[in-house]
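Hi W., the cytidine-5'-diphosphate complex you wanted:
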Amino acid sequence: MSDKKIIIAIDGYSSSGKSTMARRLAAKIGYRYIDSGAMYRAVTLFALDNGIIAPDGTIDRYALDKALPSIKIDFRPMPDGSQHTLLNGHDVETEIRQLRVSDNVSPVAAIKEVRKALTALQRELGQEKGIVMDGRDIGTTVFPEAELKIFVNASAETRARRRFLEMCEKGDNVNYEEVLANVVRRDHIDETREESPLHRADDAIDLDNSVMTLDEQNDWLERQYKSALDKLQ
Ligand code: CDP
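Structure:
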């Protein structure tokens, strides 16, 4: 096996389990994990908290554009191996996962200037390779040269059920129908937007994990990583 470091891009639909598998693989192989969705969520939280998104969901694009240079996003590694998202130095990990942010993030992520700023940051983070990044456009736009690209899917109901259980475990007061509606709506916006829409890269490997256990999924991904390394030689 080569000891060369590669870029691993994991894209797919909302709540498809990308983050879990990306995080686990990164920890196992000693790579850095970057959750690109957390960055879009952090920008959305900033916009909500600063009156840039009105209560009816309307985005003041001019104000957002002006604010972008002052939005600093970082990740802080935690003792348990996870990482928390920092927005201008504040830990916003819990807030960015709430439905208030999920309901507004896709329209924010469809804005060209937002994508440009975050894509630049993501590329900077991947400069030295040895990175696993998950999102919607990592294999198509951010790192089209990634050595390993995975495209994850599962039915909308399966994905909404998983997200619903995850939120219930955290103590969030949500109902399943609400979560399903959010998943379906975000899929639609992500797939149909003009800028870097969610679509499978031609050279991506498909994974439908509807009926896979977490262990099966992790083993599958590790095999893909090993065979990507083998191909380098
Ligand atoms: O809820 P889930 O984990 O599936 O989503 P996420 O990865 O946290 O991403 C939240 C939202 O950010 C997505 O619904 C997309 O609208 C947007 N996003 C994007 O446009 N491009 C990315 N590379 C990552 C996320």
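The first helix runs from residue 18 to 29.

W.
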